Amino acid sequence: MRKINVGFLFKFFCAFFIFVYSLAVGRFATEGDQVHYREIYAVIGLLPIADAFVFYLLNLDSKEVVHFLLSWIFATVGVEKDLFIAVSNAFLAYFSAAVFIKFKASKIIAFTIIASSFYFNVLYFSAERLKYGFIFFTWSILYLNNSKGLYSLLLMSVMSHVQMLISYMSIAFASIMSMLERALKRGFLSKSLLSFLIIGLIILIAVGPHVVNKLEAYKSDIQLFDLLKIIAIMCLTLYYAHKKRQAFYVFIPLVIVVAIIGSDRVMMLGYFVFLYYGIQINRGINLGILITTAYFSFKSLDYLYNLVNFGNGFYSG
What we know:
By secondary structure, this protein is mainly α. The protein has 2 domains: about 1-160, no CATH class; about 160-280, no CATH class. Helices cover about 80% and strands about 0% of the residues. The chain is built from 15 helices and no strands. The chain has helices spanning about 5-25, 35-45, 50-60, 65-75, 80-100, 105-115, 120-125, 130-140, 145-160, 165-185, 190-220, 225-240, 245-260, 265-280, 285-310. Helix 5 runs parallel beside helix 8 (about 130-140), helix 8 (about 130-140) packs antiparallel against helix 9 (about 145-160) and helix 10 packs across helix 13 (about 245-260). The protein is globular and about 60 Å long. The termini are far apart.
């Protein structure tokens, strides 16, 4: 008799639950950015791919191609948009559950976060393009020991949404700082550090203008409360991180970006960095994870209320 793969069953359960949940709730997401996404989805399925892409670019301030390609493929074969999103959300839930399992987190904690966390709900129903960035990002974590698969998925993540580059810049910054520390101790630069710097420079030149445009679009005055929030999540992360200096370096770019564009989008990245460290302590059954999970689950209630009643989870009246 074959042994039941509990891990697979858990991943499948999370994916199926979010699929059904998305079908039930997603149909209410009709306002805000969803106005444009729904209009574009209804049209591009009727056009050849080249014409569809032109229409997409003209009606959406975006050059990330993954969302377009997936939308065009599903729309062309006649898949209704809410079903397309439900399938996408199921994939996000599946890979997220796989990451939790990889780091041996409690399944109860993992499911609660996947099903009820405010930031997961935002990815499910509002941040449509960013969702695909996170799908490929979570998928890439499963390939940490496979460089070819890892880099391919990281590239797909950035091509899904350029904001994912902020995450990779933070990780790269932490790696470079660690390498520089070792180089200063040894008295010379390693080949890996030089390669890292050269690759980073090439990427910066290639996508820098697009990143600058995105920052300009979201630029705001520095809000002290925004900075306090990202610093608070950083301090919580440092408390649980085994490699505290590395975790601190990861947050430096996030804090800088918060100072430029505000916290809403970057706080999401900071929260997921915290999850990475927090779920590895006592399988995620610790005060930091429990408090943040309760807080962000409660915060989801207001978001879902606005989504169901006003078509937009961020409705402000």
